Amino acid sequence: MSASFLFLKKSEKNTPAAREKCGKRAGLLGILLNILLAAAKIAFGAVSGAVSVLADGMNNLTDCGSNVVSVVGFKVSGKPADKEHPFGHRRAESVSALVIAVVILAVAAELAIQSVESIFSPEKTDFSRGLVIVLGVSVLVKLFMFLMNRSLYKEFSAETFKATATDSLSDAIATAVVLASLFVSRYTGIELDGYMGMAVAVFIAFSGASILKETVSRLLGHAVDRETVKKLEADICAFEGVHGVHDMALHDYGEGKLYATAHVEVDSHMTLKAAHDLADKIEKAVEKTGVALTVHIDPLVLDDPAVNRLREETERAVHEIDAAFQVHDFRVVGGKEHANLIFDVAIPFGCALSDEQVLARIEERISLMNENAGVVATIERQNLD
Questions:
Q1: H or E element, residue 252
Q2: Sequence-separated (6 or more) residues with CB below 8 Å from residue 226
Q3: Hey, CA dihedral for 34, 38, 41, 45, is it positive or negative?
Q4: Which phi-psi region, left, alpha or beta, contains residue 84 (left: φ > 0; alpha: ψ -120 to 50)?
Q5: 363-370 long-range contacts, CB within 8 A, separation 24+
């Protein structure tokens, strides 16, 4: 069962409004729980003299700030598109996750500094039942917040939920380590407060860096997963009259907001009206899957033996260079004695050859196959994995 039942009625579904409501209410719950935990830990940490407990309490206090950021992020991301932001405000969630990541790294740095001071100037930690209870309850609360936010992330795919879940799990582990160090100090006399604090700082830093890397990648415009691309290609090719699709580009403008363009190949004898109607039909069908698609129609000559032969020769020449290369937008301009072969070649981003080297090798191979054919090729680097 999804944790959304804590914030939504059974009649409410996975809609932008439900997403925003869950985000804001989960954030407000997080603020309340973190304030209570921070107050208890700071109070007991000051009394016991445990640096790691005080640091853990300060961590919860900064988590309150992160929760405020997440609430604001969900509020902004739920706003409709406007003149200044024609693609909507969904990336506000990524900005929220980015701020949370920076806060996590700042907490890790502060904890590391305090831990180093504790290692070189250790102080006796006062052990008390109340302190143990506070830390034990804190671990349970943070595990609850981790499971809640992870469940919400699985349902709504919001980066902020994922970042908050990671932060909560880090906090639970950090507090558990602090609790373990108190027991070690109590029953062995060995003060591990500073060392445990440093270990926790390193763990928190890795968690924050992971969130930061993923969030920055999204803000910079990372590639949409290949499964989504392949499914969209298959859906388009399933339409009657479509002979292929290429030059597909998907843009992620925030969770649940994808924009795409695609070149769809059709028979060159198809009338303009029929091609337009087909493009409309494809766009409307794809829109139901949550993708705003714009279709560009490419005419494909299918009934000319000479053109088909030249296309096959060209594809064979290109595949001799690299089987992953793709030829599209092929057309022939010229007469019987000499013809220009005009086409595009899609190559992977990771191709070691330069565009000029690829073009030179294509021209060389085609000239060996057909000395009367000129080459006018455009090289395009794409994600072809």
A1: strand 244-252
A2: 383, 385
A3: positive
A4: alpha
A5: 365/317, 365/318, 365/320, 365/321, 366/313, 366/314, 366/317, 366/341, 369/313, 369/316, 369/317, 370/310, 370/313
The three-point CA angle 289-165-94 to 5° equals 55
Two tokens at 15? 């809609």
Give the pLDDT mean for 346-358: 93
Pairing of strands 339-348, 373-382: parallel
Distance between first and last Cα of the chain = 35
Residue 247: which of 285, 295, 282, 283 has the closest Cα?
Answer: 295
Spell out the domains of the chain, with CATH numbers in brackets.
3-220 (1.20.1510.10), 223-299 (3.30.70.1350), 304-385 (3.30.70.1350)
Look at the chain and count its residues. 385
Task: Report how far residue 118's alpha carbon sits from residue 135's, in angstroms, rounded to the nearest whole number.
Answer: 20
Q: What residue spans of the chain are helical by DSSP H? A: 16-48, 51-77, 92-120, 129-156, 159-188, 193-220, 226-237, 272-287, 305-321, 355-369
CA torsion, points 199, 200, 203, 205, in degrees to nearest 10? -110
Q: Give every CB contact of residue 53 below 8 A, 6+ residues apart in sequence.
A: 41, 44, 45, 131, 135, 178, 182
Put simply, whether the predicted model's pTM sits higher than 0.90 gets the answer no
Choose among 166, 105, 147, 136: nearest CA to 41: 136
**Could you report the per-residue pLDDT of 209-263, keeping only the tens digit for each?**
888 888 888 888 777 888 888 999 999 999 999 999 998 888 887 666 789 999 9
DSSP 180-247: HHHHHHHHH----HHHHHHHHHHHHHHHHHHHHHHHHHHHHTPPPPHHHHHHHHHHHHTSTT--EEEE
Tracing tokens 């937008």 back to the chain, one arrives at 329
Task: State the residue for tokens 């270990």.
Answer: 199
Q: Is the pLDDT of residue 171 over 70?
A: yes
Find where tokens 């795919």 sit.
Answer: 157
Taking alpha carbons only, the member of 7, 116, 147 closest to residue 52 is 116
